[in-house]
Amino acid sequence: MKLQEQRSTSNTNKCCPLTNRCRKVLLPTTAAPVMGLWLLQAQLPLLLLFSGLQRPTAAVKVNFNLAPDSFDDQYQGCSQQVMEELRQGDYFTKELEARRNYSRVWHNCHLIWLNQDKALPENMTITHAVAILVYTLNKNIRSDFTKAMVSAARSPWQYKHSFHFKYLHYYLTSAIQLLRKKSVMKKGSLCYEVHYEADFYLEAYTGATIRFGHFLSSSLLRKEAQNFGNQTLFTIFTCLGAPVEDFSLKKEVLVPPYEVFKVVNMSYHPRGNWLQLRSTGNLSTYNCQLLKAFSIKCIPAPVVIATLSFLISVIFSSKSGDIQIKMRGGRDKRVKSRTLFNITFKEKKCLREMADRREERRKLELRE
């Protein structure tokens, strides 16, 4: 069901897919404060990934934090440059070699698309189409990809060395954006009502803000989501997702990892809980990360870089604000943080991040 996007407050009649009863749901526009969610054992992205686990006996209250560790690059302003980098580099070959059966899956999906003999939407390539098929048709790849998105790119260094789905992530993100652009040009700004089910119980307060942090393959057909047992059903109003039925042959909409939602209604039923989510915008920590050697969050001033060339180590004391430096001659000296380098708080944080990356590299080398 396609919905014309509205930002005004309105009362809408909605029918619960669990009981087939209708009720009015208030869809407010003002953003409520972020509230805690009742999750079971882990954050929402991991629960969505391991949805086959049994229901735990007790619930643990945690503060849902919009999946801050997920890789959520939108490639704004650099899409063509990233595509060119992926073509010229050996990312695709390395990623095929890094995962068992990935090459076979990609090859089979390529053949599936060629056999369909369909015309591609404007600006889309065969690789875009194959990426959609790989994600929607293969559960194992989708599961591994989701796990990597929420746990293997927590820092720029980890993204560079441990995230082995750079190729798939870019083409899937780009495909959603191109399909959205096509829909908007034809019909204006559209939202879609979609449904997603998960085999776990989730309780959330109305007004809470959530972000899945990974791609979500959702159904346009409500009846497909009605036949479920002890689990949670999401009815999602996505304004950034894109329909992919021309590729996957199913009534599906792909929801991007960077879309933010507000819980507008929560219903409890013996057969499962029902959450209604409404899109409130997007949120990304990364942008154009493939083209960067370091994160934009950590770019020290030139004076700091020049001074560090004379040091072996820099040790920060968070309590006193001092910096203990170890000179090349072996002498230690403690100085006020702003006295020697005129260093700012942001630069100090940056240097800590640089030290953390060096430590990560050292540990990785030891394991190898």
From TrEMBL:
* TM region positions: 299-318
Q: Which domain of life is it from?
A: Eukaryota
Keyword Transferase attributed = yes
Among PROSITE patterns, the record links this protein to: ART, TR_MART
Alphabetic keyword roster: Disulfide bond, Glycosyltransferase, Membrane, NAD, NADP, Nucleotidyltransferase, Signal, Transferase, Transmembrane, Transmembrane helix
Catalytic EC class: transferase
* Catalytic function, reaction form: L-arginyl-[protein] + NAD(+) = N(omega)-(ADP-D-ribosyl)-L-arginyl-[protein] + nicotinamide + H(+)
Which Enzyme Commission number(s) are on file for it? 2.4.2.31
**One Gene Ontology term of the molecular function aspect:** nucleotidyltransferase activity
Q: Which Pfam families match?
A: ART
Q: Say if the entry is tagged with keyword Cell membrane.
A: no
Instruction: Give the UniProt family note.
Output: Belongs to the Arg-specific ADP-ribosyltransferase family.
The record's section on PANTHER family has: ADP-RIBOSYLTRANSFERASE (PTHR10339), ECTO-ADP-RIBOSYLTRANSFERASE 4 (PTHR10339:SF1)
Tell me the protein's name: NAD(P)(+)--arginine ADP-ribosyltransferase
